[in-house]
């Protein structure tokens, strides 16, 4: 047997093993959400319930604190934050990658160094600023800061650096300015990276628990992570209901990943061409 083939097969089996280890908790969560309370702790585990119990999912979606409202809030925050983050990150990245100015690299390094600042350190300054601006306890307290992402700027800059400068120079000769080059030439070429950033950023905002916990008070403003926590606190012995609520919270992430996995691979590969 070919050594290269044997190594590839072993690597594939190892990756398959870890994939199964990762997916088993999700399968157990979904399975439990359809079981009766008596079936939760049965051993050996019955992965497929004898009878599918839909009452827990009905409770999650039509109860007093319906997840429909949490979904609407999370979609509002995640979509608006992602649109702003993709636009502002690509615009800033173009400036750092394609526009020559004094101190550009030093400024970019200073900008990157902000990634080392723990986000918890900024909670008090943010609280003071949001209270002064009148957006504390509103969704804007999550949306506006979410539009600025250091990782997004870094990722898009890496892609823009890989685009040959000859393309920009030819456009300059034809009379195009930076904004036209950015919008008509560079952005269309960056679709995989833009899609990757949008998917990663959307996932981050959808799962953001800390900021929502600190800056939102009214129950009507709660996003899915807060709604899930609230559901668990109110039903601390309803394990089936908890699993149904967790399943409801994770469905959008699964859908987004399945739709965009091709773009994630292309975007990461293209952004890593030049460092």
UniProtKB/TrEMBL annotation:
PANTHER family: ABC TRANSPORTER PERMEASE PROTEIN MG189-RELATED, ABC TRANSPORTER PERMEASE PROTEIN MG189-RELATED-RELATED. It is a multi-pass membrane protein. Belongs to the binding-protein-dependent transport system permease family. Keywords: Cell membrane, Membrane, Transmembrane, Transmembrane helix, Transport. Residues 71-260 form the ABC transmembrane type-1 domain. The chain crosses the membrane at residues 9-30, 77-96, 108-128, 140-160, 181-200, 241-260. This is Carbohydrate ABC transporter permease. InterPro entries: MetI-like, MetI-like_sf.
